[in-house]
TrEMBL record:
Protein name in UniProt: Protein Churchill
InterPro entries from the UniProt entry: Churchill_sf (IPR038543), Transcrpt_activator_Churchill (IPR009508)
Source superkingdom: Eukaryota
Species, as recorded: Maylandia zebra
Record flagged with keyword tRNA processing: no
Amino acid sequence: MCNGCVQKEYPDRGNTCLENGSYLMNYLGCANCHHRDFVMISNKATEDDDGEEIVTYDHVCKNCDHVIARHEYTFSVVDEYQASSAVVTKPVEIHTVDSVTLRVFFCVVQEYTMLCMLCGKAEDSISVLPDDPRQSAPLF
């Protein structure tokens, strides 16, 4: 990996996670051949590690095959239970404790991460339920 090829190492990209492609706004040009041309992708590999999909590849200079950065993208599905006193549909269980009704929801969340000197670092999570209990407002 080459910090001479990028404007900023590992820029914060918020929740923008790239499974493929390159963030060219951060590309200065090749520090090896001094050309600013297209960035190619090579050595792309996908593996499944205990339910987590990991995609890795190298960003390389089109002219001299200099490795600019190593890109890693992960995707996983997380099953979690969440208790809420909010009124939302389809609870898995309903419990009443000290006259407060709690609804327990099964929530499936997709999580994404990206780490790359060129493209930056980012994390994102998205609920795949039609009624996301994480987005509901509490009653009190």
